[in-house]
Amino acid sequence: MDLGIKGKRALIGASSKGLGRGCAEALAEAGVDLVLNARGADALEATADHIRATFGVEVTTVAADITSEEGRAAVIAAAGDVDILVTNAGGPPPGLWSDWDRDDFIAAIDGNMLTPIALIQAALPGMMERGWGRIVNITSGSVKAPIPQLGLSNSARAGLTGFVAGTARQVAHSGVTINNILPGIHATDRAVSLDTGVSKAQGISLDQAKAQREATIPAKRYGTAAEFGATCAFLCSQHAGFIVGQNILLDGGAINATL
């Protein structure tokens, strides 16, 4: 399928690896020029080199902490006018409700709520003026079914979801769509981190911890960054203009819900 976005320009956060890279590669395959951001310069440049060589698109890199004001300003300045925005940032650490204080919540909200909102606010005016734009936020399945040990993520991402729900409906008339993708467990560094925690807590091997988690997923496996990226690219395509303010769950059926 021709996604109809060749020659568009996209900004993608946390895109040196994992789900962000999956989105970057899928958009590059569709002919989209990219602005990639991550904190680690080496991994970011390696990803950019691979995408340039594989897909022949223009790739600009900005190594910066996008959750900081300075980093965000640098990324926005380098990106310029973008047609597509994919917001993404690593989630806060797991724990118990009794582990967290105000500073922990502020950090989570800064990273997973206020940062994507700031990027959306920066991108929207130009998109609306040009009459076309796509914004996709990578959030979490915890928005639909809270994960007890991820209370910081539950809170911050739920706040972003509420903001998007109202904003998406205010700007849809201008040809701009905003949607969220809610990942379950995918084969990324985040999954390794979570499985490592289970491994240590239960005194089992990492492979056993992974198998234990896979058994709870109807698909009996973790998702891949490539299939996640393909979903993202479709939401960014010319064919997705009537999808507005939605939360698309990609979790292999792990969340047991009718709606």
3D architecture notes:
By secondary structure, this protein is an alpha/beta fold. It contains eight helices and seven strands, in the order E-H-E-H-E-H-E-H-E-H-E-H-H-H-E. It has a seven-stranded parallel beta sheet with strand order 3-2-1-4-5-6-7, with helices on both faces. Helix 1 crosses helix 8 (225-235) and helix 4 (102-130) packs parallel to helix 5. It is globular.
The largest sheet has its strands arranged as: 3-2-1-4-5-6-7
Helix content: 40-55%
Mean pLDDT: 97
Oligomer: single chain
Global structural class: alpha/beta
Termini separation comes to 28 Å
Sketch the major β-sheet: 7 strands, parallel
Please describe the topology of this protein:
Blueprint: E1 9-12, H1 18-29, E2 33-38, H2 41-55, E3 59-63, H3 69-79, E4 84-87, H4 102-130, E5 133-138, H5 151-171, E6 176-183, H6 189-202, H7 206-214, H8 225-235, E7 247-250
Parallel strand pairs: 1-2, 1-4, 2-3, 4-5, 5-6, 6-7
What is this structure, in a nutshell?
The chain has 259 residues and is an alpha/beta fold. It is built from eight helices and seven strands.
Relevant terms:
single chain; 259 residues; alpha/beta
